[in-house]
Design a protein that fits this description.
It is built from 35 helices and four strands. The protein is mainly α and 787 residues long. A two-stranded antiparallel ribbon has the order 1-2.
Length: 787
Amino acid sequence: MSRLSSSASLTQQVYTLIQEQKFKEAIGILSRMKTQFPRSRAANSLIAYCRYASEEFEQAAEDYENLMNQFPTVKDYRLSYIKSLYKAGKFEEAERACFASRFAASEDDTQFSHQLHLLHATIKYEKQEYAGATDIIQNQCSDEDPNTKITEAAILMKQQKYDRATQLLIETITSGGYLPHVAYNIALCHFMMKQYVMSLKSIEDIQEKATRDYQETRGYMGAVSDQIPFDPEFLKDSMLIEALNLKAAIEYSLKNYDKAKDALDEMPMREEYELDHVTLHNTAILNVDDDTDNAINKLFFLLSRPPFPKETVANLLILLCKVGDYERAGELLQAERQGSTKLSGGWGRIGGNGTTFGGAGLRLATGVVPSTALRMGTVPMTAAESVVLSGGVQLTGVDLDPQLREFVEASIVAQSNGFEGYRLFQALSAKQLDDVKRATKTFQELRNGIGTEQATFAVKEQERAVQVYMASMMSMAKIFWDLKKYPQTARVLQSCREVCEDEMAFQLNLAHTLFVQEQYKVALTMYDKIVERQQETSILDVTPIVLANLCVCYVMGEQNGEGEEIIMRVDKEEENALIRDPEKPVLHQCIIDLVIGTLYCSRRTFEFGIARTIKSFHPVEKKLNPGTWFYAKRNFAYMCECFAKHQIALKEETQQQIIRFLDQVDRHGREMFAENGDVAAAEIYEGEYTGKGKENDLLSVGGESGSSSSSSSTSPLSSSRSTRPGGIGSASGDKRRRPGERGSSSMGKRKDGEDGGSTTMMKKKPVTVSDEARLIKKMLLQLWDTQ
């Protein structure tokens, strides 16, 4: 661009850049002008404006302070200075500036006084001094300004007086016309009151208005329901992004997880680095089952770039416990107590699974806005894969649920001291049981008024209280489960039956516990009910391990016909699913066949058991992954042990079939890390079990490798880790995770510079699935040669 000599051309160029929102370039030109005219009011004023617009609030505050001192009679500079301090989070300095500016306000300058008082009320709102903010609004601000009612409504929302807040916001729109951020706050109030239909109606109005405005101002020719293009300038005031995040939160609360994802997909297309903080947070949570590691990295990234959604810390603690990273969870919890954090270490693969707080579960982020839309600045995501918090990121103001804090503490303690962990969970569950009783009593008192706002709140509170209580009880049961003390596990579960009987997680865990104690008849009845409950439109809606364990119950009860019927239904449904989407992984049949194959192998019926195991991998290129291979290889390892002891013999045809299968595994498993070691099986999520992370967490029907003949005859599976039926928490009651789906993260995939995480057998040279297949083949050939 050629250098412009005339000041008129330069001024035109600056205003053109500002109109195009190219603030950095405008600041560059204005800074050069400032070197020639250091006291130029126009140049300094425009630089301050550009810095404020580009969210450089601290620099903008310095610029406006200089302008305020240079031109003390220009009151707009005082207001802009206070706004900049407020936006920079310097609330104490901003409030002091408000007090100082009162002396500059003349008695007849009511407009300046009103704006100053309104800004002061907003600052007190951010400081959570709601009584002081209300006093300023009601006694010092003008009722004629719509922002007065809007700010008062925001304060009422913080005080959970949503009904009154909604009335004020509706009055604002009725008297002053449609305002997007007011419509959004109305939707938010309905959301907080669990009035989801009304909230969705307000969100729909925001979407339609945004699309129509875009059609009128940008000449957009798409339909109202179409996804509009990404236009930062237009979206700035439309509240469309905020509304769609709220829509996702509503669907998430209703457990319509696919619809929640669809809500985010309705947003204008953006690159990940262009996402605002709320959308980035919600994207991470909604895709947590597909890639837990990536979701955790994104939440840590948000913590390193405040301001972050208030739900971030709680959700991160939940996920860290879920993957069994209790050390990092402890660091974060300690940082939250101190109000700042310095977390050490980087993020590679995260191994293992843990117990997560099941009360409120993971939550999507929403926002409460006072007088203008709360917008998060866009930040680059280039470092999201290797995020490390440093520099003392402030966590002050994080509203962490006290029971979540106690739950995480108990989970951490239980890893090293099961008895003490049990005691902490027991104390926590006692308080939570009192909450359940209080919520139930309130609901019963209001049950005659079903449909009223109070009754709706009572129902939701009762449901929440039960979920919180159940999470602690399931964690107590898991302590005994991990110790393989199954009668004690059953006793803990039975102790909460009266409260949790209708909850899916309770039913799953009790069924698993009965199953592992070989009470197949009772377990079969419970699994049958679970299948009826989970099955919506297809048998593939049912968690794979439930179907697998149900088939085993039929086999053990000599009802092979019923088991075969389930297998045939699953096979047919999988064929239809593959026709609809050939690329989608479907592993129900694979898991069922693996479990049945393992059952027969444990009884040394290897001809049928190994054939069933091999059948589960058809076709190998689609069914092979580190999780499925983990369970298959144990059958082959047990077979090798029996051959070494000269306890079995195989037909030559079966031997050739095994070699062909191992060659296929060798060919397709070269880029997959093999899984070894002890991995906990529990995952509680919103009181339900997700089975997230690995297919091997979904597979289990008990047993120990290399056990004695009497033991193996009654224990179908074998492993160096706990693999009882489904595991406490390993079976999924959560519909978000499609049956058999695997995450797209680093699990089982080789990455440059990665040492294989916690699941490799050797640190220097990670062992792949191919390595293990070749080793098993070599062992078998040597054993067969000696027969």
